[in-house]
Amino acid sequence: xxxxxxxxTASGATAVQIVTKQQGKIIRLKHIGSxxxxxxxxxxxxxxxxxxxxEQLTLFTDDPSPTQMTxxxxxxxxxxxxxxxxxxxxxxxxxxxxVFKSLCIAxxxxxxxxxxxxxxxxxxxxxxWNRGKLYRTLDRASxxxxxxxxxQACFDHIHGETLSLVLYDVTSLYFEVxxxxxxxxxxxxxxxxxEPQIIIGLLVDKNGxxxxxxxxxxxxAETKTILPVIEAxxxxxxxxxxxxVADAAMLSTSNLDELTKAGYTYIVGxxxxxxxxxxxxxxxxxxxxxxxxxxxxxxxxxxxxxYREKRAVLDMRNIEKQIAKAEKAVAGQIKINRTKFLTIExxxxxLNLELIEKARALAGIKGYVTNLxxxxxxxxxxxxxxxxxxxxxxMMKSDLKARPIYHQNRxxxxxxxxxxxxxxxxSKNIELQTGVSIKQFIKTIRPLRSAEVKINNELALIEPxxxxxxxxxxxNLSSGH
Length: 481
Description:
Layout: E1 2-8, E2 14-22, E3 25-35, H1 38-53, E4 69-75, H2 77-89, H3 98-109, H4 117-124, H5 131-143, H6 146-157, E5 165-174, E6 197-204, E7 210-217, H7 226-237, E8 243-246, H8 253-261, E9 265-270, H9 277-285, E10 292-297, E11 302-307, H10 309-330, E12 342-345, E13 348-351, H11 353-362, E14 365-370, H12 376-383, H13 387-399, H14 410-434, H15 438-445, E15 450-455, E16 458-462, H16 468-479
Parallel strand pairs: 5-8, 8-9
Antiparallel strand pairs: 1-2, 2-3, 4-15, 5-6, 6-7, 9-14, 10-11, 11-14, 12-13, 15-16
Helix pairs in contact: 3-4, 3-14, 5-14, 6-14, 10-11
């Protein structure tokens, strides 16, 4: 009987041995090696299994010398092949550019500079490229408009001809430079950064799958981005009618008028600076109940107001925190720094009680503006899908590290954004199929490494053992669910 055994050594390592017994006695023992980590142990066990099965070498020969084994290299071929398959599955391979594909995959695995991507690709066991090819790829990506091909492939992937609703939002991406130019300009930053930036408009479907990306000058008003992006998207895909869902930052009377004139329907968040008349009138006779809806009919649109108790509790908690902060500022206990309910006049400072009262009256109330003739509840449900855009932006900024941007000229910047956009599409598609975040997906698959091992001067490729929970991920990827 021949079997594999693991033995703890005095140094704390785990020795892997092939043992042959006859009538209960060990007649042959082959020492494969000693492992000092889980990865090394799995590798040695794989080698031992292959030796027993006779796939690489004869197990025992007349030569009593011990097996000589050297690991030449290990690499994450499994992860590389999975991501490459998803790249092709989305139709991105219609771009005949292996370097571009490599850069997209490297950004998903470990976002870093384009030059450092060479290290990532080597770790994946992919083909090696030199710096010159990387830079020439950036030129091609911009000059040949790879993004147009990528966005069309994304549109085809979701069967966009049936698309009736898109979600839109904007964000800013900053640069590690101090000097602005005609494109990179300081502007309104949600993170209050002062560096030059650009504005990014992103379109996604109701599941957060990216459909379009466009960049604007850093000082471009957010409200001025929505119409160009939507019009370009509609023209590119020959769509007759599409509903746009956007947050309150996109809301302006001129914006809504332009969208209506252009034939678009929309659902946009409403900014409430005071208690709406309809809400005030409703409260004269009764209190707002959880999920209470009050509607305000306007000439070309309607505003759907909803009160939610859960939102009210959260709003009131934040209001009390702001009041406490303002009180400390009045008492001189903290420095005055953007304190909401604090009013400063000449040499005195005090709580703005009128503003506090208004904030409390608005707690729990949210408004939705639309020119769609659909039920109020459906309007609210569609708007709440906007978190999908926010999720995609977070993926761009954190998982794919789209910022800061170090490129200098606009063509290179646009090429960088195209790589990030393609990586976002692959990542989002994996998440939708598996239910696993792209961060967790990489963390799970990357350690399952292949190895080139030299055993007694014969080269062997050892594939990793696939745990059951990873096999389930593969199954979901294969089925497309």
